[in-house]
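2024-03-11 09:14:02 INFO worker-7 job=invfold-0412 stage=load source=structure_tokens
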């Protein structure tokens, strides 16, 4: 029964609440990967961008409950801004690394180049997993509150009740897996993008992955 202060408040079913800690852990991992990048492929001082990202992450952690049970507009804006910031930093590192390659400013061996390419590729996987989780059906807050918009992704489990019960809902790990397979295969695998936004994000991720693997890693192997 609702208490006096809870009159009129609609609580989502328990299975709709989404834990927020996987997203926080993913951003933290992405920041850690950026700190490992060589100085030549980072914009500005090595610790400047990760420090700004960490400050945003701290504010996001303080403003977000352990479980998302409804819409939090400030949290969502902060989360999207943080995700965009990390994405921009990672793409900047990719551009700087490609610039080094095109101008033949290569290290004495390819080890530094391979490590930088791997770090950029892994960050690409993590950050786009966040994008997919934050945008599908209006974001985790709307999904938790039961105010879902049209689906942006068509998961296999949504098409056959024999695989999962009706009403199955993707969790953070499902979006991270979509990001991993899209980055590895350069195209959707078992989950298809439905909306223009989802197609644009998956296309951009595939492009970043192709450049990272096709240009950087292949050149690094040649100079080993």
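2024-03-11 09:14:09 INFO worker-7 stage=emit residues=224
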């Amino acid at each position: 029964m609702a208490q006096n202060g809870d009159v009129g408040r609609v609580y989502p079913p328990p299975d709709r609440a989404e834990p927020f800690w996987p997203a926080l852990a993913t951003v933290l991992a992405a920041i850690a990967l950026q700190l490992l990048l060589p100085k030549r492929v980072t914009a500005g001082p090595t610790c400047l961008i990760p420090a700004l990202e960490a400050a945003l992450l701290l504010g996001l952690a303080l403003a977000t409950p352990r479980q998302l049970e409804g819409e939090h507009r400030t949290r969502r804006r902060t989360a999207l801004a943080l995700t965009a910031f990390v994405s921009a930093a990672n793409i900047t590192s990719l551009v700087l690394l490609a610039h080094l390659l095109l101008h033949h400013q290569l290290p004495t061996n390819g080890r530094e180049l391979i490590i930088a390419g791997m770090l950029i590729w892994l960050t690409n996987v993590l950050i786009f997993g966040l994008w997919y989780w934050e945008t599908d059906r209006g974001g985790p807050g709307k999904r938790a509150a039961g105010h879902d918009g049209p689906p942006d992704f068509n998961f296999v489990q949504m098409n056959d009740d024999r695989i999962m019960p009706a009403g199955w809902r993707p969790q953070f790990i499902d979006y991270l897996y979509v990001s991993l397979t899209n980055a590895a295969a350069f195209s959707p695998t078992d989950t298809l993008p439905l909306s223009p936004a989802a197609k644009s994000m998956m296309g951009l991720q595939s492009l970043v992955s192709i450049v990272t693997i096709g240009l950087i890693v292949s050149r690094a192997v040649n100079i080993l």
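2024-03-11 09:14:09 INFO worker-7 stage=report msg="DSSP finds seven helices and four strands in the chain."
2024-03-11 09:14:10 INFO worker-7 job finished
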